[in-house]
Amino acid sequence: MSELFIKTNKFLKEFQKNLRLEVDKLSFESSSDESFNKDDTEEEIKYWLWENTNKYYSKGARLGYKEIFEKEHKELNDKELYFHYCKFKTYERTYKNRLNNFKEKYEDADPVYFIQDELKEYLKPIDFEKPFKSLDLEQQKVLSYTRDKVVRFLVEQAKTIGYNITINVDESEWTMSYEIEEIKSVNDSLRLKANDTINNIKSLKWQGTELQLTELAKALKESNLLNPELSQKAIFERFKEFMQVENFNEADKLKEIRKRTKDKTPLLNILETSLNNWIHRKD
């Protein structure tokens, strides 16, 4: 995320450079003073540069940082880009796609692991990441509202897949943590329902090729029209079973699809033509 806040990070980097220059200068001038304490002096200079008008900052670094950060934060939000502490509307819109990317990368990981990873990031102190390290209390308050909405959203997402999450807040330490437990009654109910459904469904017989089945299954997965909690491997396994197709390596078939030069989606084109012909006949 740091690469998005280019101007903010540049400002903070320059501030550290200016601070170092002033500290080194004073250290050199006070080299013979045995009472000189470099750490205490650095804190004093840092406060002076941050809060007061000086040769580096006409209004003090704090106001300069505040203006740059708020402007850049707004610009990124206006572009509807996802980043840590983006506006909640953007977070909610991009959630499913990021979850799918997570499952694509970690095929054997349960969706609840993604939720836990997200929670861990948002339960860290707001000033944990570099662009936010120097926010004042009012700016932190603004971002805390975003954090609270995201955390509530993640708790609700966990419930839909059978997990209960409790958020714990330690106000004295300004920290947040969570506890997670599986809702057994919910998961057992979901599994029983799924098993009953599967047992009562009769399979079909696929008449096309393995390559065509791969094209169809991959297109449905990428369009997010199938179970979002299922990995690509799980989806292909169900297709093979339901269509009574012998097991094959879908990874090899996907490579063949990507190597196509002219017609990338011949099966989808056939399906579109067939459906259009039916519509015209009925009309």
Secondary structure elements and pairings:
Elements: H1 6-29, H2 38-51, H3 61-78, H4 88-105, H5 111-122, H6 137-160, E1 163-170, E2 175-182, H7 184-200, H8 210-222, H9 232-242, H10 250-259, H11 266-282
Antiparallel strand pairs: 1-2
Helix pairs in contact: 1-2, 1-3, 5-6, 8-9, 8-10
Could you list some keywords that capture this structure?
single chain; 3 domains; 283 residues; mainly alpha; two-stranded antiparallel sheet
The largest pleated sheet is described as:
2 strands, antiparallel
| Number of helical regions | 11
Low-pLDDT parts are none
Task: Report the radius of gyration as a whole number of Å.
Answer: 28 Å
Walk me through the structure.
63% of the residues lie in helices and 6% in strands. It is mainly alpha-helical and 283 residues long. It folds into three domains: 1-79, no CATH class; 82-183, no CATH class; 202-277, no CATH class. The protein has a two-stranded antiparallel ribbon. The mean pLDDT is 86.
Task: Please outline what is shown here.
The protein folds into 3 domains: 1-79, no CATH class; 82-183, no CATH class; 202-277, no CATH class. Helices cover 63% and strands 6% of the residues.
